[in-house]
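Record 1 of the preview.
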Amino acid sequence: MSKVRTNWTGYYMYNDEVLDYLNRYNQATGIQKEKIQDELVNKLTYLVQARIKGYRGKPYYMDLLQEGRVGLLKAIENFDPLRGINFFKYAVWVISSQVRIYLRWQKRCSRKVKKEEASCTTSNVQPEEIDPQIQYELCEQKSILMEAINCLPEIDKKVVTMRFGIGTHKHTLEQLGNIFSLSRQRIQQIEVRAISKLKKNNKFKQMLKDGVIL
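->
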């Protein structure tokens, strides 16, 4: 069996090898289950890299890689060997679907940010209707929120908004796990990743300190 190129993460596996991992994964619990999951994801990450290799050099490549890995996790958790489907065909299909969702989201995000920026510069609010300084601050805050939250990968945005009840009621980790067909631990990882990204935005971080965002 030939070696994987050194600039790729993962190792080639036969379908029977993956099925053996999945069998042990489905029977395991707790830390042991997470360990098997992580090992299998590491061995199969090359499936994601092969799907997104055309996007190398793009500023969102690492986010795209993470989204592909989320797709891989979904494939691992939802694959049913009793249906007689080859795991690799199923995994590639799920990964590709996740990647397409992210790319569509990336395009919408760019359009939304541009639209928000344009609305802030073309506001028709009259001075007598609202204090211009207040109007500017509200517009600036909305723009920061749009840029920080809407530019997260789609699943990150959904987890954050639903977890903290932004525009909806608050959801528990278990509820989100059921909605996205992911484990509670995986949802928590996505939540931590999303919050970490948001805090890299200095303006957003300042809004948190000022209590603008509750």
